[in-house]
Design goal:
Layout: H1 4-7, H2 10-14, H3 21-24, H4 55-63, E1 70-73, H5 76-87, E2 94-97, H6 104-111, E3 115-118, H7 129-137, E4 142-146, H8 158-165, E5 170-174, E6 196-201, E7 214-217, H9 220-229, H10 237-246, H11 250-272, E8 277-280, E9 287-292, H12 295-304, E10 310-311, E11 321-325, H13 329-339
Parallel strand pairs: 2-3, 2-4, 4-5, 5-6
Antiparallel strand pairs: 1-7, 6-7, 8-9, 9-11, 10-11
The protein binds pyridoxal-5'-phosphate (PLP).
């Protein structure tokens, strides 16, 4: 039986979170002299309000999740950091990561002096279930799953994730790219699994990376605990206002996704037809991972032509691999035109 109180760091259970006079006040006030703000109304003189100018309500509706089942972060990177700090005791606990994967898990764990148990993905970049079960029985605190995975681009098998969710361990599913995938989000399962935490972001499919807005979904008990350690005003009013406005255009968001998928398929077909490409991995995200005959030469050539891509060749199982983000029509045209000049 999963017992959340046995999973969190013990001192957090007793921690009284920061609370402002405004949090504690119920009703409608006329004069606010509680937070040492300046009285000039320039649109930003007040600390962000609870609903973040309507952003929380809007996201709750748009993602179909009640407000007590979600928490926002200054990017999902901040959320991942909060999750780590909620569950992992420095120099004692460990997390499980599955390389090659998003490198921030490891960076965040190292910052906290939290251990890292690595169970590499298999040659198809799928989860090694037996390896994970062994690591879990060794006592890992968090299982970090990235699906679709960065940098490989693939979704992780549902049946394997289910097996992991049935274990007595907290499972974090990072769905930064889920909007590009043909699979429902694990958010739908948060009431079924008390140990499930799902993170998403407005940085990728929603095109709002500069606003720094990440989302976390879990049952209300986990969210309540995360709220204890969340910096009080982690989302700023300027970001919130901009997001409320830009999220309204859902048609444009859907169109953008279709454009990305079309360009991803176009670039994939192009790369596969090139003699200097060994393999292009199937992708459910807005990027492609390609194995080249010689990645450093190709990367150098692109850099000389002022095109920056991501070298992933040092990642586990990614020898000679480059990662290409799917940009605009124009950018993909430019990439392909440049690659046409490449003599391997
Ligand atoms: C980009 C990315 C993030 C970070 O998203 P932010 O919300 O911009 O912090 C998280 N996870 C993965 C796998 C990513 O690729």
């Amino acid at each position: 039986m999963f017992d959340l109180s046995k999973k969190i760091r013990p001192h957090i259970a007793d921690l009284a979170p920061y609370s402002s006079a405004r949090d504690e006040f119920v009703g409608t006030a006329e004069v606010w002299l509680d937070a040492n703000e300046f009285y000039l109304d320039n649109g930003y003189n007040r600390y962000p309000n609870k609903d973040l100018n309507g952003l929380v309500s809007k996201l709750s509706t748009q993602f179909g999740v009640t407000k007590d089942r979600m928490i926002l972060g200054n990017g999902s990177d901040e959320i991942l950091d909060m999750i780590l700090r909620l569950f992992c005791e420095p120099s004692k606990d460990s997390i499980l990561t599955m390389p090659p994967t998003y490198s921030m898990y490891q960076v965040l764990a190292k910052i906290q002096n939290v251990g890292i148990q690595k169970v590499p993905l298999d040659s198809s970049f799928q989860i090694d279930l037996e390896g994970c079960l062994a690591a879990i029985s060794n006592g890992t605190k968090l299982v970090m799953i990235c699906s679709p995975n960065n940098p490989s681009g693939n979704l992780m098998a549902v049946s394997v994730i289910q097996k992991l969710l049935e274990q007595d361990v907290v499972v974090v599913i990072d769905e930064a790219y889920i909007q590009f995938a043909d699979q429902p989000s694990w958010v739908e399962q948060i009431d079924r699994y008390p140990n499930l935490i799902v993170t998403q972001t407005l940085s990728k499919a929603y095109g709002l990376a500069g606003l720094r807005l990440g989302l976390c979904f879990a049952n209300p008990e986990i969210i309540r605990l995360l709220n204890k350690i969340k910096p009080p005003y982690n989302i700023n009013t300027a970001s919130a206002k901009a997001a409320v406005e830009l999220l309204s255009n859902t048609e444009q968001i859907a169109q953008r996704k279709a454009d990305v998928i079309r360009n991803r398929e176009r670039l994939q077909a192009y790369l596969l037809s090139q003699s200097w490409i060994e393999k292009v991995y199937p992708s459910d995200a807005n990027f492609l991972l390609a194995k080249c005959m010689d990645n450093s030469e190709l990367r150098q050539f692109l850099l000389e032509n002022k095109i920056v891509i991501r070298d992933r060749s040092k990642q586990y199982g990614c020898e000679n691999c480059l990662r290409f983000s799917i940009g605009s029509n124009n950018e993909i045209d430019q990439l392909i035109n440049t690659l046409n000049q490449y003599q391997a």
